[in-house]
Amino acid sequence: MQQLKIEDLHVNVEGKEILKGVNLTVKLGNVHVLMGPNGAGKSSLANVLMGNPKYKITSGKIILDEEDITYLGPTERARKGIFLSFQYPSEITGVTMSNFLRTAYNSVKNENVSVIEFHKLLKEKMVELEMDTMFGKRYLNDGFSGGEKKKAEILQMLILQPKYAVLDECDSGLDVTALKIVGQGIKNMTSSKRGILLITHYSRILNEMSPDVVSVMVDGKVVEDGDYSLVKEIEKDGYKKYGEVSEANVN
Predict the structure, then answer these.
(1) In this structure, what CATH number is given to the domain that contains residue 236?
(2) What pTM was computed for the model?
(3) How confident is the prediction for the chain on average, in pLDDT?
């Protein structure tokens, strides 16, 4: 079956258990939203899915299209079609966006696309995100605003065309206009051949798309699955029903 499946996943960081038996399935063709209070483990899950070595899997499995990838490295996972949009993208001085993206494209796709050919693709995707094409000549995220960094992350997704995209709070720090553009970019990526896991605190970006599944994570576990009505419930009452008194912050 074509899906990204997480089975009873337990993960430690520096000896502390942060994921405590996560079960979650992202199916092709679905936009799967993951919500939860701060510290619930959402970003940790995103890093584990991409193979960040800081996170130690103690038990459980990650199954990609019926293949066990629990202990594969990040490069192998990327080549198999997993993409992670970081919550806090790094700044890399000395490496232009264009060079970075072309290198990533050639590595993930196992191709050697020419500079001219790639620049044509890059320009097309930048126009789609209403980004100044001069950004391609700037160092990766160096001096970028928060919104520009998030657009750069979505640009990477549009370029790489992953099978499964894990988007970790790609909407944070965006003004209304940028939020609409990024949301539309994600919507344009939805297809029967792609699954999207969207981690967010906000309901606003969901106005640009129709999530198929909504999951709630609390204290390292997925405690409820539902449809879009679950977002509205959280928007109204926060996470009180799960024993969490913190604000939902989904406006």
Answers:
(1) 3.40.50.300
(2) 0.88
(3) 89
